[in-house]
Design a protein that fits this description.
With 700 residues, the protein is an alpha+beta fold. Among the domains are: 1-196, no CATH class; 436-599, no CATH class; 618-698. The chain contains 31 helices and 19 strands. Strand 15 (644-646) and strand 16 (652-654) form a beta hairpin. It is flat and about 85 Å long.
C-alpha cells in the first residue's frame, strides 16, 4: 500500500500567507472560535521559547474539490484544507494580522496579545497593558512593521520619562528581533495526498477531530459533510450564524443584499440543531450516531463500504436541508411559539423543545400537508406540552425517535391522521392527574427562572391577557423582548427574602426561592414592597390600587393568591399557591384548544425580535476590582454544585477543566441558555452569595 501522507516543514509566515491568499482553506474564521484568549497567549509563549506546539494536518485537495477560501482579499483556489490544527492556525492568523474572529455566539471578537520586552512575557491585552508604555499592546504591530514598532516602543518609553542605557536599547532591539522571528518558527505539516479516496479522508477527519475531545454526534456528521458536501456544511453554518443577526447586519458582513435571516427571540441556532432536524426529516432518525453510521455505509462484518447506500443517505440530507432552512417554514414555526404565549428565550428552559417541535412542524407541513392555520395551533400546543412535561429532558433522542415512529403507519398527505395522532399524544401527556398532582409537584423548585412549569405559568398569563401583579399593565407587554427597558419584569418574592432571613430566621436559599413564592411585577412595585411582611404591604397595596373589586378578583386568579394568603404560614401558602398556579396554566393551555386556529397572530405583523440586553463584562468587573483572582462564583439558578473560580488570567475556570473569557460563555457551558451570565452567577464570600447583577450600579 502506497503512503497516503507526507510531512513537510512550513514556516509560520508561509502558513499565515497561505491563509491570507486563500491557498489554505480555513473555515474556522467563519465558524466559532472556541479557544480562550489565554490559550492563544500560551501558544505564542511556547513558540517564543522554542517549545514544540504540535503538528498540523492538511488535505491536499484536487482542483475540482477546492473550496472557496474566506480569509484574505486576494484569493486563489484552495490547495490545502486543514484537517487538524484549526484552532492553532486561526490563533496565529488572527493574532498576527490583528483580525477579529467569531466566538461561539458568532460575535466578532478581537484576539489581542500583549508583550512585555523587559520580562519577555506574553499576556492577553487589557486596559492596563494598553496604558503602560512598557507593554507592546498588540503584537500584530510587530509582525506588520517590526522596525517601526521597535522605534515607536523606544520613543514611547522616552516620552514617558524612561531613560534607557545603550545596553538596554540594544537588548530591546534584540527582543523585538526575536519576537519578529516567530514568523520563522517551523511547523511540521502532515499532508494527505490529493489522490487519496474521499472515504478515507473522511475517516481521518473524524478520527483526528475526536482525539482528546468530547466530540458530539453531530460533529461527526458535520465533519463528514466537510469532505463530501462542503456546500451543505456551509449552508448549515450560515443558517446558524444568521440566526444571531438582522438582515441588515448580515448584508453588511456579506457585502451583498440579504433580505431574510432566521434571527428570532427564542433560539440562537447551533449547527447541531440544524443537523438534528435535517437528519430527522431526511433519514427519519433521531439518534445522530446511527445517522452517521448510515452515512458511512460500512458493513460491520467485512468493513466494506457500500458506495450506493452512501450516496442514497447523503441524497436524503441534500433534499432535507432546504426544507429545514426554508424561510417560510422557519418563520411560521416561530409564530407557533409566539402563539403558545412565550415571548423570548428567557421563558424557554430547553432548546431541545424548540428543535423537536420544529421537526413536528416540518412533518406536518411538508409530509402530511396540514393546513397552516391548524398546524400553527397544533404545534403551539405541542411546544407548550413539551416544556410543561419535560418531554425532551433526559434521553431526548429516544423520545424524538418515538415521536417519529408514531407516524410510521400514516400515508403521505394524511393531514387528518397527523392531526389526530398529535392531538392524542398531547391529551395522554397532560391528563387530569397531571394537572392535579404532577404540575403542583413540579413547582417544588428553588429556581423560577429555570423551572419549566413556572415559565409555562408566565406564558399562560400572556395567553390569558393577564395584568402584572398589582399594576394595570399586561404581562405580555413586559415580556416583549423588543421593548427596551432599564428595569424589566421583576420576579418578586411575595414573601420577601430579607423578611424571611431577618424576621423568620430562614437561611436556606432553596426554601426562600421557591418558584411558588414569585410573582411578575415591575421594579417600582418591588421596591415599594421592599422587605416587609405580606401582612403589612398587601393591605397597603389594596388600599392604594384595589379600588376596582373585579380587577382585584382577577388579580387573585391570575396570580394564584389563596384566600387570606398574606396571613398564611409560609409552607401552607406555597402548597396552596402551587395548586392554583397549576389551574392557571391549565386554563391558559385550554386557550390553545384545537378550535382556536383562527387566533394565530397576523402574519403581517413582525415577529418579536430579541433585544440585546447589556450584560456585565467579566473584564469590567475585574478592572473595577469588583471581582478578584481567586474569587469563587456560584450559580444562583442551578441546584447542582459547580466549582467556578476567577483565575489570575481573568477567566472563569469551571471544575478545574473548562476555561471561559466571559460570563455568558461559562453559563452556556452548563446548558443554561435562557438567562445571562450576570443573572446566573453570584459572588461567594464569607458564606453569602451576592448576585453579579447587583454590581451593575458600581460600573459607570
Amino acid at each position: 500500500m502506497s503512503a497516503i501522507f507526507k510531512t513537510v516543514s512550513w514556516q509560520v509566515s508561509q502558513l499565515v500567507a497561505g491563509v491570507h491568499q486563500g491557498s489554505i482553506s480555513l473555515p474556522d474564521l467563519q465558524r466559532p472560535f472556541v479557544w480562550p484568549a489565554t490559550k492563544v497567549r500560551d501558544l505564542f509563549d511556547s513558540m517564543y521559547r522554542g517549545y514544540p506546539v504540535g503538528a498540523l494536518m492538511f488535505w491536499d485537495v484536487a482542483a475540482e474539490d477546492s473550496t472557496r477560501a474566506i480569509a484574505g482579499e486576494a484569493r486563489i483556489a484552495a490547495a490545502h484544507q486543514i484537517v487538524d490544527g484549526q484552532q492553532r492556525l486561526t490563533s496565529l492568523y488572527a493574532a498576527m494580522k490583528g483580525l477579529a474572529v467569531q466566538n461561539d455566539n458568532y460575535e466578532r471578537k478581537s484576539i489581542r496579545i500583549s508583550f512585555h520586552p523587559f520580562t519577555e512575557r506574553f499576556e492577553v491585552a487589557t486596559a492596563a497593558t494598553a496604558r503602560s508604555s512598557e507593554w507592546i499592546e498588540n503584537i500584530a504591530t510587530v509582525f506588520d512593521a517590526p522596525i517601526d514598532a521597535t522605534d515607536d516602543y523606544i520613543e514611547g518609553l522616552e516620552a514617558a520619562g524612561r531613560e534607557l542605557s545603550r545596553e538596554q536599547t540594544r537588548e530591546i532591539r534584540r527582543v523585538f528581533s526575536k519576537l519578529g522571528d516567530l514568523q520563522k518558527y517551523q511547523f511540521d505539516v502532515v499532508h494527505i495526498e490529493k489522490d487519496v479516496d474521499k472515504k478515507l479522508v473522511a475517516d481521518v477527519f473524524v478520527r483526528i477531530n475526536s482525539e482528546g475531545v468530547n466530540l458530539k454526534a453531530y460533529d461527526y456528521i458535520l465533519t463528514w459533510l466537510s469532505v463530501f458536501w462542503p456546500e451543505g456544511r456551509e449552508q448549515i453554518d450560515e443558517f446558524a450564524r444568521h440566526s444571531r443577526m438582522t438582515p441588515e447586519r448580515a448584508s453588511e458582513l456579506a457585502g451583498s443584499k440579504i433580505s431574510w435571516t432566521p434571527k428570532n427571540a427564542y433560539l440562537a441556532v447551533e449547527t447541531g440543531h440544524v443537523t438534528r432536524v435535517m437528519v430527522a426529516i431526511g433519514q427519519n432518525r433521531a439518534k445522530l450516531i446511527d445517522a452517521y453510521a448510515n452515512l458511512q455505509a460500512k458493513d460491520r462484518q467485512t468493513g466494506r463500504v457500500d458506495g450506493d447506500k452512501q450516496e442514497r443517505e447523503l441524497a436524503k440530507l441534500r433534499d432535507a436541508l432546504p426544507v429545514v432552512t426554508n424561510s417560510l417554514h422557519w418563520t411560521e414555526f416561530i409564530r407557533s411559539i409566539q402563539l403558545a404565549g412565550f415571548r423570548s428565550h428567557a421563558g424557554i428552559t430547553s432548546n431541545m423543545n424548540i428543535v423537536a417541535s420544529y421537526i413536528i412542524f416540518l412533518l406536518g407541513r411538508t409530509q402530511y400537508g396540514v393546513e397552516l392555520r391548524k398546524l400553527r395551533t397544533l404545534v403551539a400546543r405541542w411546544f407548550f406540552m413539551s416544556q410543561l412535561t419535560g418531554r425532551y429532558t433526559g434521553s431526548s433522542e429516544s423520545q424524538i425517535q418515538k415521536d417519529l415512529d408514531m407516524f410510521a403507519d400514516l400515508a403521505d398527505r394524511d393531514a387528518e391522521g397527523f392531526l389526530r395522532l398529535v392531538d392524542a399524544t398531547i391529551s395522554v401527556s397532560v391528563t387530569n392527574d397531571f394537572w392535579e398532582f404532577n404540575a403542583p409537584q413540579l413547582l417544588v423548585s428553588s429556581s423560577h427562572k429555570l423551572s419549566p412549569v413556572y415559565q409555562c405559568y408566565l406564558a399562560a398569563l400572556n395567553t390569558l391577557d393577564a395584568d402584572m401583579f398589582m399594576i394595570p399593565m399586561k404581562v405580555r407587554e413586559w415580556m416583549d423582548p423588543s421593548t427596551p427597558t432599564v428595569k424589566g419584569m421583576e420576579g418578586h418574592h411575595l414573601v420577601p427574602r430579607d423578611y424571611q432571613e431577618k424576621v423568620l430566621g430562614t437561611i436556606d436559599n432553596k426554601r426562600i426561592n421557591q418558584a411558588a413564592n414569585f410573582a411578575p411585577t415591575d421594579w417600582d412595585t418591588n421596591q415599594r414592597i421592599s422587605n416587609r411582611a405580606p401582612a403589612v404591604y398587601w393591605p397597603e397595596l389594596l388600599a392604594e390600587r384595589g379600588g376596582n373589586a373585579d380587577w382585584v378578583a382577577k388579580q387573585h386568579y391570575w396570580h394564584a393568591l389563596p384566600r387570606d394568603w398574606h396571613l398564611l404560614p409560609y409552607d401552607e401558602f406555597l402548597e396552596q399557591r402551587r395548586t392554583l398556579i397549576a389551574q392557571v396554566i391549565r386554563d391558559g393551555f385550554a386557550r390553545l384548544g384545537p378550535d382556536l386556529g383562527s387566533t394565530a397572530p397576523d402574519a403581517s405583523l413582525p415577529l418579536p425580535q430579541e433585544v440585546g440586553i447589556p450584560t456585565l463584562s467579566l473584564a469590567a468587573l475585574l478592572e473595577q476590582g469588583l471581582l478578584l483572582p481567586g474569587d469563587q462564583l456560584a450559580p444562583l439558578e442551578l441546584e447542582t454544585d459547580v466549582d467556578a473560580v476567577v483565575t489570575e488570567d481573568g477567566t472563569v475556570m469551571i471544575d478545574g477543566i473548562h476555561e471561559f473569557d466571559d460570563l455568558d460563555e461559562a453559563t452556556r457551558s452548563l446548558d443554561v441558555t435562557n438567562i445571562s451570565g450576570s443573572q446566573f452567577w453570584a459572588l461567594e464570600r464569607d458564606g453569602a452569595l451576592q448576585p453579579l447583577s447587583e454590581l451593575a450600579s458600581s460600573i459607570a
